[in-house]
Amino acid sequence: xxxxxxxxxxxxxxxxxxxxxxxxxxxxxxxxxxxxxxxxxxxxxxxxxxxxxxxxxxxxxxxxxxxxxxxxxxxxxxxxxxxxxxxxxxxxxxxxxxxxxxxxxxxxxxxxxxxxxxxxxxxxxxxxxxxxxxxxxxxxxxxxxxxxxxxxxxxxxxxxxxxxxxxxxxxxxxxxxxxxxxxxxxxxxxxxxxxxxxxxx
Length: 201
What we know:
- With 201 residues, this protein is an all-alpha fold.
- Helices cover 76% and strands 0% of the residues.
- The chain has helices at 2-15, 19-30, 33-55, 65-88, 107-119, 122-134, 142-167, 170-176, 180-200.
- Helix 3 (33-55) packs antiparallel against helix 7 (142-167).
């Protein structure tokens, strides 16, 4: 029963579009799928890092106000920076990949973009730490907690890769190609908005 409650709460959180979704969206449409998958792996790795902290019982991290404030401002600035880059990008066809750090054909760079975006989002830290504090019994063994963590990390990876795979299909890309400029601007606006809201909270 405990696992079902945790898995359900985690999946419901995944359903709400956040900064990760808009990063995956613009990467999957603009670039070959393998780079979008690298981005997704970076996002899942950052989630896994916070899950490790939660599994090992370091709930006190969320009480570290200074750390959370630093994460909030760094994360807000990072999202705002990415959003502005997309907003300033000139109009190009689907084949014309913009020359900025978001669209460089580098597995390491795409992994890094996803990882930094997720690890600098203090909401991820608070969510996982709260989940393990509130929903996981103190009597739950460490091995079961590890299983919960592996499950959630895997679900994040599979879910994000699934989104990228759908958006990266050639038929979907061609259908979206007429709106690619608008999609990038909406993605940029949403990422910038997430950055501003994160900073102001």
